[in-house]
Amino acid sequence: MEIQTIAIFILWLFLYAYMIIASIDFGAGFYAFYAISTKEEPKLIGLINRHLSSIWELATLFFIFFFVGVVGIFPRVAYYYGVPLLVPGCVAMIFLAIRGSFYTFQQYGGKRSKYFLLLYGATSLLIPVTLSTVLTISEGGFIIENGTDIRFYPLKLITNFYSLSVMLLAVCSVLFISAMFLIYSAKLIEDSESENKLRKYVLVWSFPTIISSIIVFASMKLHNGIHFERMHNVWGYFLTSLVCFSIAIFLVIKRKRYGVAFMLVLLQYFFAFFGYGVSHLPYILYPYLRLETSFAKSHLAYILIILFVIFLIGITIYFIFLMINKPIFQKLYLKDYEKNDVIK
Fold first, then answer.
1. 48, 60, 217, 326: which is deepest, by most CB within 10 A?
2. Integer Cα distance of 182 and 304 in angstroms
3. What is the greatest pairwise CA distance in the chain?
């Protein structure tokens, strides 16, 4: 395997980790807004609030690693994506500032405003929608290079059918992944009331998630026929993803093994995400950026790859330790949960 392939695989792992963790964070934020607005069970609000204070830091860490890795290992990406990412990037930063302000006031006892709460719930879904445009841009058609001039067409991006379908999938996935994680958390602390409520959320969002995935596939054929045909060569990834999804939903319906169901959802998105990534290669941006011509053959790039591998090995061992030592994990979880029982 060539070094640039290893590098993009590692960066794709970071992006996948960010996608999952950020989905839990953003989804929990929206459910918190919904629960407070509808005056849901206090335990459910407390369960959700527990995650708002611990997950977003981890998501930020993975995003920073991914961003630094892309710029340091594939510097040409910054040249092409610089202007296109400026618009969604600025919008996402504004939304993140709103969420961060709400979280700060919430933690330090600030008075809660209904309008601020509404903004918080809305931004929890608008941020993933904004960030999803990065993958859409990579499919080509929104950036035109004319000599040294690179033009970006944002209006085309937000009105394109494929782009809109990816945004829809982003919203559905955020709510589905977050609900799956929260139902496992509720089961872990034996909170039956929250478990029943979250089980409904999982089942409600499972159908839109799979339908939006199908719409993305169909719109991909219209937008980028080359990539669509390459996806046929890795159909096994997507079939495995569908099988994982089906088993996970079956377990939720039967009210069994929520931990296994959540792991299956992680595998569902792992295979779908990597199936998309493998079929996307060798292009990083259709049709201008290819993997082999974008790689920076410098000492910095090799050092970053080594550091990222060490980090991935370390964090993998840590999470395996937590999963194997479930009593320790549960003890830590319950202790933190008791401190954040109810949003006051």
1. 48
2. 34
3. 62
Cα–Cα distance measured from residue 29 to residue 26, given in angstroms and rounded to the nearest whole number: 5
> How far is residue 316 from each of residues 52, 275, 305, 321, 323, measured CA to CA in Å?
23, 22, 16, 9, 11
Contacts from 185-193 at CB under 8 Å and sequence distance 24+? 185/47, 185/50, 185/51, 185/333, 186/44, 186/47, 187/258, 187/259, 188/259, 188/330, 188/333, 189/47, 189/330, 189/333, 189/334, 189/337, 191/43, 191/44, 191/47, 193/41, 193/43, 193/44
Digit-coded pLDDT (tens) for 237-294: 999 999 999 999 999 999 888 989 999 999 999 999 999 999 998 888 888 888 888 7
Which helix (H) or strand (E) segment holds residue 144: the answer is: strand 143-146
Following DSSP, what letter does each residue of 246-308 receive, concatenated? Answer: HHHHHHHHTT--HHHHHHHHHHHHHHHHHHHHHHHTTEEETTTEEHHHH---SHHHHHHHHHH
Whose tokens are 């709460």? That residue is 117
Could you tell me the pTM of the whole model? 0.86
Tokens 């989905």 appear where?
23
* Bridge partners for 146 per DSSP: 149
- Residues listed for the chain: 344
Q: Return the structure tokens found at 133.
A: 């445009």
